[in-house]
Amino acid sequence: MKQFISLFILFTILFPSCKSVQTPSITGKWEVTIFISNNDTLKLPSSPATILLTDTGTIYGSGSCNRYFGTYTFKGKNKIDIVPTGRTQMFCPEILFEDTFIKALEDIDNYSIQDSVLVLSNKSKDIILKLSHFQDKIIGVSNDSHGCNTAAGYTWSEIRNECIRVFEDGIRVNPVNDPQATTSAFIIFSIDSLKAEIFLPDQDERPILSRRILPNGKYAWNMEDDDTYNIRFTENQWVIEKRGRILYSTKR
């Protein structure tokens, strides 16, 4: 018996138990700091390209000009599939960079975290995106009660607990009954995507909705026992509904 115990102790010393290594979470908002395409390092635009990955498999951000959105899924260890499903249609000087960036996202199939940097690449490694956690750069004089510089386009988000620019951090949705409308609503998600905040045009009302699982396994954001507002991702578009009627959509 003593010999068995001695052998067991020796075995545990020589062969320590393996601990499972957890893959670092990649959810959150990231900013592109290096973009290599076809082995060339591209010059980054003045307005950063960003990626926000939620824990519900949705992705959205800025291509530096337009807002885009889509989905992502994990395909195995360090394997990821990103599917951009739509974006706004403004034309900017950075549009060529943005087109290349969106196309690169479609080709990405690998991810890793290296020294707090998110690295995305394709199979052939001729597309590499390196991203750091996004840091808002607020300049100018703070104006409102929360310290947000409204002159620079910042406003307070309750669910983010910080000053944001809705046109940079949110998903733009347009009125479905007025294709010529020049004002839009914006959807802001909390980083963990458990809450959604609606910024309606020309209104102080900013409904805050909670995430709920639907019978089909998909998600919706609404208020319990209240059908006033409902947010869903359906048919490759984000929609805001009110009592069953679609008011805003990412599609024109």
Automatic annotation (TrEMBL):
Database matches in Pfam families: META
Residue ranges of every copy of the DUF306 domain listed in the record: 28-129
InterPro entries linked: DUF306_Meta_HslJ, HslJ-like_sf, Hsp_HslJ-like
Superkingdom of source: Bacteria
Protein name as it appears in the record: DUF306 domain-containing protein
Lineage, broadest ranks: Bacteria, Pseudomonadati, Bacteroidota, Bacteroidia, Bacteroidales
